[in-house]
Amino acid sequence: MATLSSNSEENLNEVQHNASVKEEPEDPTIQTSDILLSQDVMCDSCMDSPSKALKSCLTCLVSYCEAHLRPHLENIKFQNHRLVDPRHDIDCRTCEVHQLPLERFCLTDGCCVCLDCESQEHEGHTIASIGEACSQIEAEMQKKQEEISQSTSAAERAIEKLQSNNDLIKSSVQEICVLVEEQFARMQATVEEARKGAMEVLEGEQRQALRQAEGIQAHLEQKRTGLMKTLAQMNKMSRSKSDIDFLQEYSDWKKGVADVRLPNVYVNRMDYLTSYVQVVTDATQELCDLILSSYRDKLSMFCKGGTKLTMPESQLSSLPDPETREDFLKYTKSLTFDPDTTHHFLRVTEDNRKLTNTSPWQHSYPDHPDRFEYWRQAITSQSVYLGRHYIEAELSGEGAHVGVTYKSIDRKGEQSACCITGNDFSWCMGRNSRGFFTWHAGLETALEVTDIKRIGLYVDFHQGSVSFYGVTGPMRLLHKYKADFIEPLYVTVWLSKKDNVVSLVKER
Prior knowledge:
39% of the residues lie in helices and 18% in strands. The strands form four sheets. It has a seven-stranded antiparallel beta sheet with strand order 7-8-19-10-15-16-17, with no helix packed on it. A six-stranded antiparallel beta sheet has the order 9-18-11-12-13-14, with no helix packed on it. Strands 2-1-3 form a three-stranded antiparallel beta sheet. It is of the alpha+beta class.
């Protein structure tokens, strides 16, 4: 037989010693099963009657009595098997390095270890037994669960308040709309009253002019009747038979003849009404301009003051602004892209942190109301809201853009306002064939950088700022925007060209 290993020899000597001890006479009336105790480990190979195990093999994960243990002691094939005192938990997980049971837990590294690991690789670490570690971690988990439960309850209460506030907003706006309608109805009544007044003035001028014309016409008609009578008398005189009669009649007619001259007739064409029209037109234009400018300016000032997000003083951070990259990393925000928003030409990978433009290859994403249909963009699932937030992203290719926007951005339109470079509620940075730029409200700002592979996006919601940093080398501020945020922000990526890539760096 081949030479046994030292481990096997030790185990064999121990077994022989135990066997010699067992050679004392026993009471034959006592059955084997009667002397076995409940805490004893049984041999896993004894089928007919149970026998007390002498050793447990950590390699086979089986316990053996003296008879069934002999192959492990005499056969060279089992020389590398590790024999220990009988164990009830022989089938528990063992250390892959030392093949010993994982009986301890390293609180420093957060992993289960065996006794050899504790004395070697994890020497000096805080170590506890599996039971103690479980009790401690369960207590921590229970405390964490209570905190999460409290936060969940607080979130539910906040949601209820928001919903109640939404209902209040709707009812308040409806009430205000009624009042506004009343004011505009009042204004319309005033305009109608002014219109009636203007029309009455015109009608009065018309009546006066017509009465004047009627009086003149009556006078002319009367004058015409007298003239026609005189003309008849003159015709009668011309038919006299003798000159003496003619002269006599003429002398008599001349004494009583009326004035045949007509007075100067004034025809009032009311040319001055043209000026009246000009006065009404100028006054109307002045009032319209005054109404529009007054409403626009005053309501605009009111809305700017009313919609600006204000936080309680207790929530405002008194900490200094971050300066080094280590300072910024304290506000690192872990984000992932929402697959339901991803354009069909974009592939999302690496746990939804990486986007790649695969044009012209499309992906069979299901239809969704949040999905971008024209602009090749995607939005993160998580929002950036209240406080300070820092995100790092890696950009690759001319056409890769990353920034923040409101969730209300249009997902289906083709207008420039549907892209994060073309509206006044988006702030982004990217690269095109001309270099690196930042964009807001359609206005681009050139950056004095030549090559950046990783950028830092810093949002201070309370201070109302969005800043872009270059982190490829030393931390460098590239551009900073000031804004009054009225909604939570979402990190958004636009990949305009094939093979463009943007990856959100996972927090450490």
